[in-house]
Amino acid sequence: MAKTDPYAALRIREFNIFLLLRLFLVFGWSMQFIVIEWQVYSITKDPLSLGIIGLMEIIPAFTMALFAGHIVDQKEKRNLFALCIAAFSLISLGLYLLTSEAVVGNWSTNAILYSIYALVFFGGFLRSFFGPIIFSLVALIVPKKIYPNAATWSTSTWKTAAVLGALFGGFAISWIGVANTLCVVFLLVLISFFMTFLIKKKPILNKKIGEPVKESLKVGVRFVFQNKAILGALTLDMIAVLFGGTVAILAIFAQDVLEVGSEGFGILNASISLGSIVTMFATTYIPISKNTGKKLLIAVFVFGISIIGFGLSNIFWLSVLMLFISGAADGISMIIRQTILQLKTPDDMRGRVSSVNSMFVGSSNELGAFESGLAAKLVGPVAAVVFGGTMTLITVFAIGVKNPTLRDLDLRADMEAHENED
Q1: Which of 23, 53, 59, 25 is nearest to 38 (CA)?
Q2: Which of 4, 50, 144, 247 is the most buried (most CB within 10 A)?
Q3: Which positions, given as ranges, span the membrane (predicted)?
Q4: Rg of the chain, C-alpha, whole Å
Q5: Cβ atoms of residues 76 and 204 within 8 Å
Q6: What's the fold here for domain 211-421?
Q7: What does CATH list as the number for 9-210?
């Protein structure tokens, strides 16, 4: 059943609870990102301010990543997840207050701006924990033989929430205002917090509880760098996200290039995630285990081409199409990367390996936001996006030639081994 049943993971009650929880959390998170990007650029009209948002998040996320992975491998995952969501709710509440009439009418622009940056910085600290916790928790909820199916549904739910959050966030700015939209985010985060307690506590599979931090981190990093398939996949996505990301400067395109306002801004953001959703649901029926490495390289290549197309377009719906294609290609890439990580990572190292993943890929989102904002300020948004897409294409060719382990990767044997183990 695990090979042919596209709904295998959905037949597990706790996994369905986890998906619904993640839907609410990411929906709110996505809305919050859209609103803050819009609000900061509206205040400053400076592309570099958008880059600073990314920089404020990447500093704690990157520096804390490995330590967070160590903590996740040492602690019970359900309660740790609830604690992180509770802390995130405080950020949402703070952002709501910063955009309320009482604060906007009495605080200076710089005071509000720096306070937003401070909350984003705190969010980056939490970000370093969320990835390893979710990655580890999924593996404790579902049997190993359906890891790929669970990874597909988990990532699809994340992207579904992202597209709905981005779309609603853009329209909500116009409909109910920035502050009220952030109030909705706060309520969604609270709902997700209470839902975590519908999932039972999970066993700690790490046999080296109390292991010194330095030794624990060294083991995790060594594992990733010795596994060429994992290292190649992470490197490929890191460069693509670092240079090929456009989300951080979409506000500039919406306001100054395409001139489509907040509604168009929401559509542009949503089109990326919508493309991912379509391909992610398709992969529940079309396995990616055969010729996995080649499919990953092709997906990232298409992503780079579509990013260049978006940068050169000055027609709104053509831009939407290019972003949709980029999201579709990125969705395939994410599913393949998550499947490689799930199948190749030992149970007692999931937190640390996921943390290295977040350093490669997750932190690249924020660093990419800074790079995009800086490039847009120096050479303009169009040139910045075209440059990013070109760098992505160069990376695909380089890794395809230099890493034959990834290029020739086929996961069918790994999936059969896990099925026999179960």
Answers
A1: 53
A2: 50
A3: 15-36, 48-68, 80-99, 111-141, 153-173, 179-199, 230-253, 265-286, 298-325, 378-401
A4: 20
A5: yes
A6: Growth Hormone; Chain: A; (1.20.1250)
A7: 1.20.1250.20
Angle between helices 147-175 and 177-195 (to 10 degrees): 150
Nearest to residue 373, comparing CAs of 362, 384, 389? Answer: 384
Q: What is the pLDDT of residues 376-396, one digit of tens each?
A: 778 888 888 888 888 889 888
| Closest to 296 measured CA to CA, from 409, 149, 394 | 409
Angle between helices 13-44 and 77-98 (to 10 degrees): 30
Give per-residue pLDDT as tens, 274-287: 787 787 777 767 66
pTM here is: 0.70
Are 9-210 and 211-421 equal in CATH topology?
yes
